[in-house]
Amino acid sequence: MLDFIKKNNVKISGEGEQAIIFAAGFGCDQTMWRYVAPQFEKEYRVILFDYVGAGKSDYSAYQSEKYKTLEGYAQDVVEMCKELNLKEVIYVGHSVGATIGMLASLQDPALFKQLIMLGPSPCYINDLPSYKGGFEREDLDGLFEMMELNYIGWANYLSKVVMKNLDRPELAAELEGSFCSTDPLCAKEFARATFLSDYRHVLQQVTVSTCILQCEDDSIAPKEVGIYMNEHIKESAIFFMEATGHCPHVSQPEETTQLIFTCLANI
């Protein structure tokens, strides 16, 4: 277990018995949950972790073959739950972290009690007229090219698109710093695994109770995406947030915390 805790930089806190896992989005680590996760420590066993290749994880454990798809990250989540002897886990995932949790629940549904998805997306590429993912394929190819040619410039540009809230530039600056602290090779492969994936076909296979938190004016996961997921996951509910941008747990942690508690009350 110690090796696994080191591998994913697992941190455990809280006074409760019910486990609640907080999973970060692309290019981020567990510190992004610092305003939200502590609010659950009185009632829950709070578990934070970093994906291999991000944060303070063990970078030597990174394998391109495993992590070229999101299933590799989902496998780590399942293994983490089993190593920690967790049962009926509540999993709170941001962005691609939500997709990873969904895939983990498909690998082993019995491990999970509830999925809480913050700004999720099963597919980021438009498939008009039936699906609006938010990006054209050529837009993503341009971002990947920018990552190759000017990684720092890419981080500066994308952080502003993701965070919004331009009147609070310190938020985008923090996200940019998070992008820049991630190993570029890992980030590039994680970006492709994230933005080129299409998991729309598995939504109807999800059996775990699901709660979707959808932000206003989210360029990464537009409102149409949240509505689409709610319509295609059998046991799901959706809450529309006043928070704008793609990182409400950083920009509006109070609203995010309140809505997570609302989801927990409606299991």
TrEMBL record:
PROSITE patterns tied to this protein: PROKAR_LIPOPROTEIN (PS51257)
Pfam families from the UniProt entry: Abhydrolase_1 (PF00561)
Annotated AB hydrolase-1 domain residues: 19-133
Gene3D superfamilies given in the database record: alpha/beta hydrolase
InterPro entries associated with the record: AB_hydrolase_1, AB_hydrolase_fold
Family designation: Belongs to the AB hydrolase superfamily.
Entry protein name: Sigma factor SigB regulation protein RsbQ
Organism taxonomic ancestry: Bacteria, Bacillati, Bacillota, Bacilli, Bacillales
